[in-house]
Design brief:
193 residues, mainly alpha, 9 helices, 75% helix, globular
């Protein structure tokens, strides 16, 4: 199922419960837990939510893994068809204008969690809904005169892709430093108040 032994599932659930009580971030737990087991963060995150889902329907599993009550999760909010098309359109416009997916998503606003959801939705649409993506590409081309083709790859585009990756990494480092400074300033302001 999750790739985790029962003891590991218990530990993950216990640590998640402690973090939630302290108002902490599960993302950090997933990273740490994955590193300790030489696994991917995404694998641990997916295992965690799979454990919660299974425990809702399996009393034996619930007793075996959870001591006490189940952990609660926020309901999953899905993008509707119009929102999905708009996400693809905004990102394609950004790519057409020379920006990266990451930069475009960050410019779309919102917190890190929303940015991740938007980025994942875009990649999911590219992979699973090519017909809609191509419709949006045609729409962008009509409006802008051209449109970036996310399906086209050539040697030249591979070089461009590598360059964009380097630019994205630089942008992410700068953005990360700004976020850290922002958190630090907020903490100082709070302490002064």
């Amino acid at each position: 199922m999750t790739g985790l032994k029962t003891e590991e599932m218990r530990e993950l659930v216990s640590r998640a419960r402690n973090i939630k009580q302290d108002g902490g971030n599960l993302s950090k737990l997933f990273s740490e837990f994955a590193e300790e087991r030489n696994m991917a963060k995404g694998t641990i995150r997916n295992a965690y939510y799979e454990i919660l889902k299974r425990a809702e329907n399996d009393e034996g599993f619930k007793r075996e893994v959870f001591s006490g009550e189940l952990l609660k999760t926020n309901p999953i909010v899905f993008f509707d068809e119009i929102e999905s098309r708009l996400i693809v359109k905004k990102i394609l416009i950004g790519l057409t204008e020379g920006r990266s997916v990451r930069r475009t998503v960050l410019e779309m606003g919102g917190d890190e969690k929303r940015a991740l959801r938007i980025s994942n939705k875009y990649r999911n649409m590219l992979k699973n809904d090519r017909e809609v993506v191509e419709e949006v590409m045609s729409e962008v081309e009509r409006e802008k005169g051209k449109c970036f083709d996310p399906y086209f790859r050539s040697e030249q585009s591979d070089e461009l892709y590598k360059l964009k990756c380097e630019i994205n990494a630089l942008y992410a480092r700068i953005f990360g430093k700004l976020q850290a400074e922002n958190r630090e300033l907020k903490a100082k302001i709070k302490a002064l108040q």
